[in-house]
Design brief:
Largest sheet: 2 strands, antiparallel
CATH architecture: Orthogonal Bundle
Radius of gyration: 19 Å
Structural class: mainly alpha
CATH class: Mainly Alpha
Number of strands: 6
Shape: elongated
CATH superfamily: Jann2411-like domain
Strand order of the largest sheet: 1-2
């Protein structure tokens, strides 16, 4: 496993800026050299991930059961993304898990009014339902990616063993980062050189 600092140095996969669910799916990955990371591996790292994606209220503390629920939904989202890319039907359990997350919290934003900020809408949720709220937001985002205009551009990185997902930005490029693209090009160059020697 690699530490979170090295993962933080890796660039986000194309599309993560538009889809938090893509970043959620890519919060675990296998990298070259037998390395891997899991940004939801502990309650502390899961809290950091939620905070960095604006999905955690400052007063919320996560416990292992919450981090485990996040990892479980993430695994289902990864299965759904892979099935979509492969043109296959996903397991019913993955669809059910996403729908359960979608319907686990009220979706209507409440009206709040205070003297400083005036009226605004907020997605209120009690502390004990904060994870439900985050998972519902991520599930809705995943459903949008799977059914929206970018669904045909969802891909997995083709630089094995990397297993990150991305939204293709142009052409046929299907690498999650320049690093993975450079690795593929270097391997192709070595193959061509070996064929000519």
């Amino acid at each position: 496993m690699i530490d979170a600092n090295l993962r933080a140095a890796l660039p986000p996969a194309p599309g993560e800026d538009a889809y938090r669910s893509l970043a959620f799916a890519d919060s675990v990955a296998t990298l070259p050299g037998g390395q891997w990371y899991d940004l939801l591996g502990t309650p502390e790292s899961a809290m950091r991930w939620l905070s960095s994606h604006e999905l955690r209220a400052p007063d919320v503390r996560l416990y292992e059961v919450c981090a485990a629920r996040m990892r479980t939904l993430r695994d289902h989202v990864r299965v759904l993304f892979a099935a979509h890319i492969d043109g296959a039907a996903p397991p019913e359990a993955a669809v059910t898990a996403l729908n359960d997350a979608l319907t686990s919290v009220p979706t209507a934003a409440l009206l709040v009014w205070d003297a400083t900020n005036g009226p605004r809408r907020v997605q209120a949720h009690p502390t004990d339902q904060a994870v439900n709220h985050a998972l519902a937001v991520l599930a809705a985002d995943a459903a949008q990616l799977l059914t929206g205009p970018d669904s045909g551009r969802l891909a997995r990185c083709e630089a094995l063993p990397c297993d990150r997902f991305l939204v293709r930005t142009h052409g046929r490029r299907q690498w999650c980062s320049t690093r993975c693209g450079d690795r593929v090009r270097a391997a192709r160059a070595r193959q061509r050189k070996a064929l000519h020697t």
